[in-house]
């Protein structure tokens, strides 16, 4: 019989069945992700000023500027200050780990992907027939009606809710057909009606917004690279666990390499917020 882990009334859960239960309840991927992150970040010791900056950023993002608001947030999230400090400390460790992995690659990746990172605004209408599309296109060509007016009245797609205006949106997020048309057109250019996916489309290029390698873009690229990396690691561990390969099972054994979590959390106390 396995080692008892927890007992809830007449339900007893043995330690060795925990991975299977986590998998059954679809909690195993997140659990493995956190194990991997702890294993890879445990050696990182954020500086005091880094901790303060990260803590203040958390307060700002959550609109917390008083002790009362902090207490309310803690209560709503089932945390106390000690657990919050630990949570933020570990998040900061992960952010530092991301930088150690990918910071030197960001500029080259930005240049390689810039065409897809550039953003665009455009107006679009999807209608059912060629005849209707030609009629609406003619009204736009002759300035008889505005695009937003016609789209709000005649568009059949979700663009109807936005008066036909879409964006700003990255070129990389567009389907290939739309992306190719917008890439070769100029601002203000109105495309003649064309058929696509059982609709007739009227398209106008509104505005280009070239991507810049600012702090926000760096964070975005870094996070995307990290998500690709960590997801591959998690999928590899899931495959090993689900296929129960004996020779690889030790990779999932925590007791061979205990995970030590730092007890020195030096973030500000609530009184200093």
Describe the protein:
With 273 residues, the protein is an alpha+beta fold. It has two domains: 138 residues, no CATH class; 91 residues, Chitinase A, domain 3, CATH 3.10.50.40. The strands form two sheets. The protein has a four-stranded antiparallel sheet with strand order 4-3-6-5, covered by helices on one side. Strands 1-2 form a two-stranded antiparallel ribbon. A hairpin with a 2-residue loop joins strand 1 and strand 2. Helix 3 packs across helix 5 and helix 5 packs across helix 10. The chain is elongated and about 75 Å long. It starts with a strand and ends in a 30-residue tail after the last helix. The C terminus is likely disordered.
Provide keyphrases for this structure.
Chitinase A, domain 3; 15% strand; alpha+beta; two-stranded antiparallel sheet
SSE diagram, text form:
Elements: E1 4-8, E2 11-14, H1 18-24, H2 28-41, H3 48-61, H4 67-76, H5 81-102, H6 106-117, E3 119-127, H7 130-141, H8 147-154, E4 165-170, H9 176-184, E5 190-196, E6 199-209, H10 215-243
Helix pairs in contact: 2-5, 2-10, 3-5, 5-10
Count of distinct strands? 6
Oligomer: single chain
Strand order of the largest sheet: 4-3-6-5
Characterize the largest beta sheet: strand count, sense, and whether it forms a barrel: 4 strands, antiparallel
Order of helices and strands: EEHHHHHHEHHEHEEH
Quickly give the structural class.
alpha+beta
Count up the domains.
2
| Helical proportion, percent range | 40-55%
Low-confidence stretches: 246-273
Spatial gap, N to C terminus: 50 Å
> What is the overall shape?
elongated
Helix tally equals: 10
| Percentage beta strand | 15-25%
The averaged pLDDT comes out at 88
Using only CA atoms, what is the Rg?
A: 26 Å
């Amino acid at each position: 019989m396995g080692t008892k882990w927890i007992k809830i009334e007449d339900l007893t859960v043995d330690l060795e069945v925990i991975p299977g239960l986590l998998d059954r309840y679809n909690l195993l991927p997140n659990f493995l992700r956190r194990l991997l992150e702890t294993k890879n970040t445990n050696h990182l010791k954020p500086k005091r000023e880094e901790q303060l900056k990260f803590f203040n950023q958390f307060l700002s993002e959550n609109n917390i500027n008083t002790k009362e608001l902090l207490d309310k947030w803690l209560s709503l999230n089932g945390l106390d200050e000690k657990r919050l400090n630990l949570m933020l400390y570990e998040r900061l460790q992960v952010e530092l780990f991301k930088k150690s992995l990918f910071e030197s690659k960001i500029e080259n990746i930005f240049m390689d992907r810039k065409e897809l990172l550039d953003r665009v605004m455009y107006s679009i209408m999807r209608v059912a027939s060629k005849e209707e599309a030609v009629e609406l296109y003619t009204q736009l060509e002759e300035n008889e009606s505005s695009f937003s007016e016609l789209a709000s009245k005649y568009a059949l797609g979700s663009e109807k809710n936005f008066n036909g205006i879409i964006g700003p949106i990255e070129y990389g997020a567009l389907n290939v057909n739309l992306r190719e048309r917008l890439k070769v057109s100029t601002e203000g250019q109105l495309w003649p009606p064309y058929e696509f996916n059982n609709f007739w489309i009227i398209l106008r290029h509104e505005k280009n917004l070239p991507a810049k390698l600012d702090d926000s873009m760096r964070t975005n690229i870094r996070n995307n690279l990290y998500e690709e990396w960590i997801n591959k690691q998690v999928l590899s561990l899931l495959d090993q666990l689900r296929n129960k390969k004996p020779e690889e099972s030790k990779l999932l054994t925590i007791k061979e390499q205990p995970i030590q979590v730092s007890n020195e959390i030096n973030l500000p106390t609530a009184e200093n917020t």
